[in-house]
Amino acid sequence: MKKIFYITLLILSVGIYSCTDLEEEVLDEQNGSAIIADSENVGMLVAPAYTFLRDLQSRGAGWLALETCTDEVAFPTRGANWNSSAYRNLFTHDYDASNSYIKNTWNSYLIGFARCNVALYYMDQLEKTDEINEYIAEVRFVRVLSMYLMNDCFGKMPYREYTEYDYAADPEYYTRAQIVAKMISELEEIIPELAEKGGVPYGRVTRGAAQTLLAKIYLNYQVYTGTAPEFTDGDTKWDETISTCDDIINSGLYSLADDYWKLFLADNADYMNSTETILPIVYDSSLGIGGIPWVNMTLDYNQAFGTYSTSNLWNGCCTTPTFYETWDQTDPRFSDDRLKSVTGFNLGLLVGQQYSTSGEALVTKDGGRPLIFTPEFSVENSLEEEGVRVVKYAPDAATSYPGASQNDWSYYRLADVYLMRAEAKFRKGDTGGALTDINTLRSTRGATTLNAGDLSLEAIYNERGYELYWENSRRNDMIRFNKYCEARYEKEEVTDTYKILFPVPLTAYDADKNITQNPGYDAFN
């Protein structure tokens, strides 16, 4: 009965997974056993695993932790506002095992893993129809994704199989090598079991998502098997990366979007699904499953528009001069003004004088200075107007839910696949093939194409930034391109290489005294 109650609590803790056939039904302990044993209710079993995907956009865990330690995102202290050492320490790489956002990230990924194990345990008891096998493969994918994130961030994880449901027993602790081997094995098994795009409803995991994750493991294989910071002693899998990307591109199921910014509009599901999105994560504020309040976090208090009042805008995060100065500002991905008449601001990077929807030059809230966003800021004490703001995910000016975002999230998309293939080709010496992939993307985006002499690892790194900024890719890219430890704006010191991995949180040790800390950090006592 305890196991039945556990799965009941998990199901009760999530809402409808919008736009799929994964729906919540309220259970009690008495009828839980019958419902769990009924294969007609399999969607309910997998729903908690799918909710983990939405948590990847958390501003209290994964997204914030993974982006704020890079040059793409900073949360400067602004007077009495945003005055948190946890933000600052992530940005300056002074984090340790007590950082709350690193703790939340660890917890989020392991909760996702546990939810998958619970779902797999109960589905294993059902008759194995094609539908059940498909759902099993989907949940196994989500489980591998949680492992991938644990491996990428922490380099280790407590591991137990779904058959090991006695959570009082100590788990096995997987090393990075064990995690990588397990992930590849799992993905190779489930790829044939997963439906192609169109074979299951929008929002469910498909074969392309598993292939993309496999390509990412291959792309980072040298990092996962090598020694920081350059990883040159690691094994490479460039050919496997290219081959896996070929499978996705040549499937013909995805096409690069001819309108970049339509991928990030508030009502973006149909366009995402008809173009390049490989793994969509669905949000719907009307159902209580809204996403990160993107514009709320970054816009100034006085940039009110539509249903967004000054109380909805928090004047928080910005990007850095290090990232801002890499841009050719004629690149359409830098700025777009399609919503300016209803919001007052452009999409993309916001710099310079800001205006209201009526064209009035705005001033700051704290003293009436012109609201001119500047590239420079102080992470310790910024003025209200300092820092280039970013609006990657467009708001709905008429929304009834200004405290959350409505945009679906393209967690994986075809543009990234082209960029992964280009990088792998370049690293193995196929400069021509890499240039073709880069220019295929740039020409589709309306950016100037590159010449052969322009192409370098630096150019590929920058291209990934132009295309994927604020999409949870930067930390992984900075590590692979040996950028993570470099000094940068407001982080004047070179980071010690051990900090490429996050520390294991203190709370993890409190829960299990068998766990060990990552090298370089203070050992647990």
From TrEMBL:
<keyword id="KW-0998">Cell outer membrane</keyword>
<dbReference type="Pfam" id="PF07980">
    <property type="entry name" value="SusD_RagB"/>
</dbReference>
<protein>
    <submittedName>
        <fullName>Putative outer membrane starch-binding protein</fullName>
    </submittedName>
</protein>
<feature type="domain" description="SusD-like N-terminal">
    <location>
        <begin position="77"/>
        <end position="219"/>
    </location>
</feature>
<dbReference type="InterPro" id="IPR011990">
    <property type="entry name" value="TPR-like_helical_dom_sf"/>
</dbReference>
<keyword id="KW-0472">Membrane</keyword>
<dbReference type="GO" id="GO:0009279">
    <property type="term" value="C:cell outer membrane"/>
</dbReference>
<feature type="domain" description="RagB/SusD">
    <location>
        <begin position="322"/>
        <end position="521"/>
    </location>
</feature>
<comment type="similarity">
    <text>Belongs to the SusD family.</text>
</comment>
<keyword id="KW-0732">Signal</keyword>
<dbReference type="InterPro" id="IPR033985">
    <property type="entry name" value="SusD-like_N"/>
</dbReference>
<dbReference type="InterPro" id="IPR012944">
    <property type="entry name" value="SusD_RagB_dom"/>
</dbReference>
<dbReference type="Pfam" id="PF14322">
    <property type="entry name" value="SusD-like_3"/>
</dbReference>
